[in-house]
């Protein structure tokens, strides 16, 4: 299935990695990571750093699935506000999830620094504005519970936001200075290339897993070419394409749309180049790039099939253009390229990380939701800890024991 279409900016911005290495023979290894996107790359990094043997398998070229289309806003804020999440999974667990996302941003920065991978990582402030005056009350509730749990947050009136950031928001906003942005494609390819060179990591592309069977002492996988892979553990890091490995549907599929502008003269950009998003559902989100371009995304809707998703692209471009021009009427915004993609979401806004009940040898690192990259960092750490018998207090918050209760 096509995970995206159109022309994702990151594929144009970066040189497509010329790496073609399909699995041609049977293979025996300790751990197989299925998926070479940012989730699989971070997972490989954690395992290699811990000295655990692993390999990566993907049916595509490296990181050319969802990661190539990611707009890569890194925020501790989750699609479901903390005040609402607290009513779904308990306030303590919701606060743990938010703090985990906050820590993951620093952890991603550290990973990129220690591997010397230039992924355009940039720390920025974030503005979460009320889409209408009625949502000001939601922001007040959210502000109070974040303060209670010592999360970084400020509540500013719309007049202050307009003055500080030159954006015509319709309501008040929550602001923090602990967010970031990056290039997910460059991060994934950079991390995998680093570990191939430094740790002998094996990456097999254009290799499709057709069957995965758990045994008493590991797993046996069969590829589309009939090759057999024997391993101790399997880590599935393929996003919503993990369906073939899951015994039950646990996510909803959503189509999303994004576009990027021509380069804009620096004086037209808003102060601090902060990330911007809103309370509406679906929400608009905005960021800049290191080349003074503006990325605008949103207009999400329930996914039906790739053809229908793609047929709406031109219509969605016009809608997104109108929205950005309403917020920034003085910016000479002109679309350079646009794309659409598919991602997964869950009812409580959280990813699924760990073992499916009864499957001890298969781990799922599924960073569902708008915070996919921060979830990917958390998932890599939790699973690596589990493989080393290290207790991780975050496991129960993101684990599969939520399935029967909330699904």
UniProtKB/TrEMBL annotation:
Superkingdom of the source species: Bacteria
Cellular component GO terms held in the UniProt record: cytoplasm
UniProt feature coiled coil, ranges: none
Annotated Gene3D superfamilies: D-Amino Acid Oxidase, subunit A, domain 2, FAD/NAD(P)-binding domain
SUPFAM superfamilies: FAD/NAD(P)-binding domain
Pfam families reported in the protein's UniProt record: DAO
Protein name as it appears in the record: FAD dependent oxidoreductase domain-containing protein
Protein species of origin: Phocaeicola sartorii
């Amino acid at each position: 299935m096509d995970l995206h279409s159109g022309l994702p900016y990151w594929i144009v911005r970066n040189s497509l990695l010329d790496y073609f290495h399909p699995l041609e023979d049977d293979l025996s290894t300790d751990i197989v990571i299925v998926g070479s996107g940012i989730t699989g790359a971070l997972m490989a990094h954690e395992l290699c750093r811990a000295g655990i043997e692993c390999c990566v398998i993907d049916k595509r070229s490296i990181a050319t699935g969802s990661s190539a289309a990611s707009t890569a806003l890194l925020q501790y804020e989750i699609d479901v506000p903390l005040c609402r999440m607290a009513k779904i999974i308990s306030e303590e667990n919701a606060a743990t999830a938010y703090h985990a996302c906050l820590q993951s941003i620093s952890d991603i920065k550290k990973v990129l620094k220690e591997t010397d991978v230039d992924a355009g990582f940039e720390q920025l402030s974030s503005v979460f504005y009320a889409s209408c005056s009625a949502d000001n009350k939601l922001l007040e509730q959210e502000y109070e519970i974040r303060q209670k749990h010592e999360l970084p947050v400020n509540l500013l009136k719309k007049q202050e936001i307009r003055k500080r950031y030159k954006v015509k928001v319709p309501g008040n906003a929550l602001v923090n200075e602990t967010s970031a942005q990056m290039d997910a494609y460059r991060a994934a390819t950079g991390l995998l290339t680093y570990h191939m060179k430094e740790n002998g990591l094996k990456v097999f592309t254009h290799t499709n897993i057709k069957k995965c069977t758990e045994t008493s002492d590991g797993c046996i996988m069969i590829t589309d070419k009939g090759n057999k892979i024997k391993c101790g553990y399997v880590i599935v890091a393929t996003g919503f394409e993990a369906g073939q490995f899951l015994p039950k549907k646990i996510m909803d599929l959503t189509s999303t749309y994004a576009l990027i502008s021509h380069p804009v003269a620096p004086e037209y950009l808003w102060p601090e180049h902060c990330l911007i998003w809103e309370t509406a559902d679906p929400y608009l989100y905005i960021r800049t790039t290191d080349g003074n371009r503006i990325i605008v995304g949103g207009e999400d809707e329930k996914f039906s099939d790739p053809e229908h998703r793609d047929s709406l692209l031109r219509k969605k471009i016009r809608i997104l253009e109108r929205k950005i021009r309403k917020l920034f009427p003085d910016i000479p915004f002109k679309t350079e390229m646009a794309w659409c993609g598919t991602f997964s979401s869950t009812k409580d806004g959280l990813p699924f990380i760990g073992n499916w009940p009864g499957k001890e040898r298969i781990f799922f690192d599924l960073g569902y939701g708008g915070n996919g990259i921060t979830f990917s960092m958390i998932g890599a750490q939790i699973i690596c800890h589990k493989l080393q018998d290290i207790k991780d207090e975050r496991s129960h918050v993101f684990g599969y024991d939520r399935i029967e209760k909330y699904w």
